Batch of 3 targets.
Target 1
Amino acid sequence: MDVIVGGGVVGLSIAWRLARAGRPVTVVDPAPGRGASYAAAGMLAPVSEVTYTEVPLLRLGVASLRRWPGFAAELADDAGLEPGGLDLRSDGTLDVAFGADDMAVLDEMAAYLDKLGLPVERLTGRECRRLEPMLAPSVRGGLLAPGDAWVDPRRVTAALLAALERRAVPVVRERAAGLLHDGDGAVVGVRLETGGELRAERVVLAAGAWSTELAGVPVRPVKGQIMRLRSPQPLLGRCVRGAVHGASVYLVPRGDGELVVGATQEEMGFDTRVTAGGLYELLRDARELVPGVTELEVSDVVAGLRPGTPDNLPLIGPSGTQGLVYATGHHRGGVLLAPLTTAVLMGEESELAALCAPGRFRDFS
Ligand code: GLY
């Protein structure tokens, strides 16, 4: 049996893929679907989230985005949902600019992405507003990444739990307090907080920011505060983002009128408090992009912990300790990278697997 420690979008996806392949599997998590996946906006946006130094991450993201439509269709079917039940949408991301400096940054980014074979469309302010009439009049231009997509992570985790239930996969709602080792140091299961034990041929550590507590993985919590607003009609037709006051803010619309505004990036350890300052900054910056956001009802505020690694790439694959596999450290891309993570663990992506191999950090442990 495989034990998956962690019931976020990554851990549940792995459990689901293993169960579909006929492997006995058990998930351990005190509150499945309520960690970072619950806070996440669900941007499947490898192109608009790219930075100049992160081509390997871009490659992983593009490969995983390609897998998302098939993954969503299979999952919806397995969970007994309508085909569109996960609210997967692929109308692209519009990155907007206000001043000459921002415009120059977008121009450079467009040239860079073009060189990588990922074409984007350069738009004037008027063209941006034609696409998104609620944008501020001060928007001077933008970059449309037409292939970027997004999904509702809360629906994804609910669907994964439903699919696991239909396949009779046990989900143990407890914290894994430690790993069990045999006399040779191999991992042979997990110890539960209440004193019980689960024996396993393989333990897959997918506990996000908490992975470090169990196995000393080089993963740290990166706090993100995020806000959900609500309007009777969707305010935007696609994801909109932009840099305001030096920080990036994004707005992700859902079909039911929800608008997700995210997210802070804070190095605060295991702190999940929602603060007045965090919410103020999100709203202040979102209002610069789309002034109408201040009219909307606030429906939810939450803070989650992204599992950051020293190189921002995830750790997926054998840990170096027999019986222990890592599927953690997805930082800002857990939802995007979930299909790819399962593919790497199922041996379907050998070339990309090398980019995420945990062995690159062996000196840390
Ligand atoms: N992927 C967006 C974020 O982590 O805020």
Target 2
Amino acid sequence: MSKRVRKAVFPAAGLGTRFLPATKVIPKEMLALVDKPIIQYGVEEAIASGIEHIIIITGRGKGAMEDHFDHSFELDAMLEKRGKRDLLAVSRNAASLARISYARQKEPLGLGHAVLCAKELVGDEPFAVILPDDVIDAQPPCLKQLIGVFEEKGGSVLATMTIEGPGISAYGVLAGSQDRKNPRIYNCTGMVEKPKLEDAPSKQAIIGRYVLSPRVFELLEQTKPGAGGEIQLTDGIKALLKEEKVFGYTFAGKRYDAGDKFGMLQATVEFALKRPEFGERFRSYLKGLNL
Ligand code: UTP
């Protein structure tokens, strides 16, 4: 594999049941973290990592995402008329971030199936996958770190986090060994989905950023549905491992599970504290709470 990573796939067709009732009508990916939909953080990360073409996998009731990344004629005209130049720039910015295409997943048949829906739009080149509900605060951006490893090593790369204790059972976990030269790189020989703590082959948990070889599409097509009738992305990557190199990379930065209520609360507090316009005021407010 030698081609450049130009395209990023955003699976966003899931039902978001953990966030009901908020996600009954509003797509989970459109929930605001401070003042920006969580998917926009991922799109901005992709662009800052050199991605040129964003492919969002959508499903029923997800039209708000397409509207968000488009011009809102009435809103823009009204803001212009009222002389609200700053807000106009914010509104227009979302629409001019990147070239965005959409593919539809007709039924939420799993993450692997959602990625497979991007096959025609990606074509025969390596590509990134960003799970929009994993919001990552990192500099350089997490995806850029993975692309750096991909360019150096020439294989697929999965972002990982080191998890101590029983929390590991919520993740896909890598088997293999740490690279001798770079301890952040993990030479992957296998992976287990959501193992019990005693069965976990390592502490390396897979999170929502990937750089993948296009061969994974053919392998996903051959993957049979697993638990719950879903086609898992990890099953496709497991098949890929038998043919090509796959690496884990312990990215530098902090990841928040914004698809989960508690994770969203953590992200909200920490992102709000970093905002120059009200971070200090918010800090004093938190300090003043009788906790
Ligand atoms: P999740 O399992 O976190 O999302 O999938 P979900 O199913 O929407 O959420 P819960 O568990 O019911 O609350 C990770 C990502 O994969 C997408 C989701 O939209 C989310 O961004 N996904 C998942 C799909 O696009 N299609 C699927 O069939 C499943």
Target 3
Amino acid sequence: MLNTILVTGGAGYIGSHTTLCLLEKGYEVVVIDNLANASKESLKRVEKLTGKKLTFFEVDLLHETDIHKVLSCHPNIRQVIHFAGLKAVGESTDDPLRYYHNNLTGTLHLLRALESTNIRQMVFSSSATVYGYPTTIPVNEHAPIQPTNPYGHTKAMIEQIILDTIAAYNWGVVILRYFNPVGAHASGEIGEDPAYPNNLLPYITQVAAGVREKVTIFGDDYPTPDGSGVRDYIHVVDLAHAHIAALGALDKQPTGAQLYNVGTGKGYSVKEVLEATQAVVDRPIPVEVGPRRAGDVAELTSDPSRAHAALGWNAKHDLKEMVRSAWHWQSKNPHGYRKQ
Ligand code: NAD
Ligand code: UD1
């Protein structure tokens, strides 16, 4: 019988897609989320789509005793996927103490609660943002860790805390460094629901839907083929599957650290993403060129070969499918999970 998986932050964007995938694979799932950046509606839809039940606790990782209560109610939990955290780069620069408190203290509480109940296997959501301004493209896992903002520092610090935890208590952890997750489940029932879209594709689809006026290309004078920034976009469903593969890797190698980039390895420019969206939405998307955004790099793409070799995982969706699914979600849910 498959394990019961604890999923922190499971009501969020990547967490809800991964929870769906876990249920489809036959895992029992216990989700905890404080709903700071999510809605319970995502999980209701996951249950409807899969025809399976999950267990949800509205719990804040900052309240350690509540984590203990969940674990004592579910003694079958053997592995954890830890998504919960705050993730907006700009917000983290404006309010770093909130970010350090939430992401670091929350994780410390989780790790302590898990250690005290002998749960020692985890998959952790890290980010390509830990690489900062990379000197070599594509980036492999040996590249230096040099974050450039408080959010990135929380990820780098948590990675270190995890390595120390593995060494001291004999844990097994898979750290996944995601590149740029985009897209939505093919049903259009779950997707990314940002209060304000800071990232490119949700912004473009909101402009296409008429929610926002125009897309600003943040600089077209970068040393890239068309002058706009290049990123490694990864379909959220492919990313969800990488988590399933990571759980399998923990079964095979129950202790020690495993670290993987999760991207496609292929870069697309802002202009290419705009063209791909234009082709899918079949309506004009007003665009202007603006100045570069502070903190942006010209190009960031992954070398995902380690994940291919060790996890047997490969991204299956191309840019067109990423854009089509993002647009399907946006069109079906113009107000996200809100009724209007
Ligand atoms: P998200 O905001 O949709 O999901 C995070 C979830 O964590 C939310 O549901 C939120 O309510 C919950 N949460 C936050 N603080 C909590 C706390 N103290 N206690 C309990 N729940 C809490 O974000 P996402 O895009 O699904 O990202 C998931 C993880 O992946 C995050 O750790 C994020 O930093 C990381 N990540 C995301 C991206 C991306 O582009 N989306 C890229 C790299 C890494
Ligand atoms: C951003 C974060 C990164 C985080 C990632 C995923 C910054 C500096 N980096 O990465 O830490 O891990 O999101 O959540 O915020 N762009 C436009 N116009 C827009 C929006 C974006 O031209 O309105 C461009 C950007 O300059 C970039 C590309 O589109 O070249 C992708 O931007 P975005 O989706 O914000 O992701 P990143 O900047 O790669």
